[in-house]
Amino acid sequence: MRDLVFKRGLLLSLMAVVTAVACGTGSTASKGSVSVMATWTGAEQASFMAVMKPFTDQTGITINYEAAKDQDALLTTRVASGNPPDLAAAPSPALLTSFAKAGKVTALNNIVDMTALAAQNAQSWITLGEPLGDGKLYQTYSWVSLKGLIWYDPQNFTAKGYTVPTTWDSLLALQNTIKSSGTTPWCVGLESGAASGWPGSDWVKEIVLSQSGPTVYDNWWQGKQKWTSPEIKLAWQTFGQILGPNDSNVYGGAKNMAATNYGDAGTPMFQSPPKCYMHNQASFITTFFTSANPSLQPGTNFNFFSLPDITAQYAGAHVVAGDAWSMFNDTPQAQQALKYLTTPDAQAIWVKRGGKISPNNLVPLSDYPDALSKSTAQILVATKIAKYDAGDLMPAAMKNAYWAAVLKFAQNQSQLDSILANLDSIQATAYTSS
């Protein structure tokens, strides 16, 4: 019965999208296509296409999807050559904001239902979509993720008598206990094509927020706080405590970190015997766990705890992220697709498949497929200090240098001073040229 109600609701949502656009353009626009560029591949790409299937079935509009791992470069080239996709979903709002400043994307205020958007989403997500401060919406979010989650295998923890740490000191104590048993405590994978290094950058930004607070965090990504400042340097040094001397706390060390794709990094946790016991990654990683090991069950074979607070004053802080939509070609078909993507029915399809959280408050907790995904959604809603991914908010040149710096640091932590000095020099020009 519940599925029948959902299908009826989805059909009504699609009919409303078609009707609203037809009234606004004078055309039903029931055929044609929409070109979409995003970074999703594999299981994530399959989930996105599952989201769009009811839309295509109802409207006859085909979705031409293009996966772009190096999206910054590819999308920039396509826009410069006058051949952008109709819609792009990017994890970097800064990239899309640069196109908004250049007048290359369409304001969405007269395309999406702003009243529904405001009623169904926290104001913070809408404000993120108005980066120019002119009241115009250039970006909108369908799915988001929660960062700073430490994944582990409960069965392995039980077998070893390990307990989930609730403080930063107890986390460090646990990693030392695991290491003393002869096994490396952490799984880390830094490879991601042209974006290699970003998984390690998550560690740094999560530490900055928890250790030094939201003011330092905001000043940092905005280019107002130097990388060599005591607070940012301390965050890198704290990350170094996690990696250990010569990366001895990480399975395979520096060489394996650089060669292992972020989606595969957690796999050694599930080997027998396990090669590592903990893995820091955002809520989306569950899709990669189950794709690599279909027999794994949430809660039984993998669970998470939040990265413990470092400074009590900033307790409950979390880094969040998402993929923001922007429209490059204002066509009737693209309008219909974007309107559909803002609806709770569309967003619920991926939520039910696992790996994504919807920012829409009309997507019920019952749509999340397991207790773990429900927990991530609840944490996102209850987070006291939520800050968007700092790297993704930085200008492209700064972000890319940040990721590259993580790779250098993982190879040789003793180079930290020169690494941070180089980031300072890039910061001096990256923000003025963006």
Task: Give a brief rundown of this model.
With 434 residues, the chain is an alpha/beta fold.
Can you give a write-up of this model?
The chain has 18 helices and nine strands. Helix 2 runs antiparallel to helix 14 and helix 17 runs antiparallel to helix 18 (416-433). It is α/β, with parallel strands linked by helices. Strands 1, 2, 3, 4, 8 and 9 form a six-stranded mixed β-sheet that branches. It is globular.
Number of strands: 9
How far apart, in Å, are the first and last alpha carbons? 52 Å
Going by helix content, strand content and strand pairing, the class is alpha/beta
For the largest beta-sheet, the strand count, sense and barrel status come to: 6 strands, mixed
* Backbone shape: globular
Low-confidence stretches: 1-29
Secondary-structure element order, N to C: HEHEHEHHHEEHHHHHEHEEHHHEHHH
Percentage of helical residues?
40-55%
Taken as a percent bin, the fraction of beta residues is 5-15%
What is the overall number of helices? 18
Mean pLDDT: 91
Using the CA coordinates, give the radius of gyration: 22 Å
Helix and strand layout, with pairings?
Blueprint: H1 2-25, E1 33-38, H2 42-59, E2 62-67, H3 71-80, E3 87-90, H4 93-101, H5 114-120, H6 123-128, E4 140-146, E5 149-152, H7 154-160, H8 168-180, H9 198-221, H10 230-243, H11 253-259, E6 279-280, H12 286-292, E7 303-306, E8 317-327, H13 332-341, H14 344-353, H15 371-382, E9 385-388, H16 390-393, H17 396-411, H18 416-433
Parallel strand pairs: 1-2, 1-3, 8-9
Antiparallel strand pairs: 3-8, 4-8, 5-6, 5-7
